[in-house]
From TrEMBL:
GO terms for cellular component: membrane
Membrane topology qualifier: Multi-pass membrane protein
Protein name, per record: DoxX family protein
Species, as recorded: Neoroseomonas lacus
A Pfam family reported for this protein in Swiss-Prot or TrEMBL: DoxX
This protein's UniProt keywords: Membrane, Transmembrane, Transmembrane helix
Protein location: Membrane
Gene: mexG
Amino acid sequence: MEDLLTLTLTHPVAIAAAKVVLTSFFWIAGLFGVFNFKVIVQEMVDVNLPSPPIFAVATIACQLIGSALVITNVARLGWLGAGALAVFTILTIPIGHPFWKFEEPKRTHEFHIVLEHITVVGGLMLAAIISLHS
């Protein structure tokens, strides 16, 4: 049974599927942004970022390029894509989810989002490690 599990989890299709699932939040959000650019610009306005259109383009580019690098590991740069997505995700905490600034019940809701973000960063760390060995 252990051999079957090892064969399954190390199969290239399983690894590719895991990378697609791990990055799905980012590439789906990036594609949404491409087709709904004004919505992303408004998000940047809502969190008081300067030059909202520039931040919107940078966000979409990071999400799509980072995801593509993780999924394909082209030129063995999956680690770079994972790192970019991890830094992006960490930066969204103080910018978009500063739970410490809110009253309950929003504080708890935003805190749970932060915990999810931290968990995703852990997955991206593992993706970076895997990209160096494949």
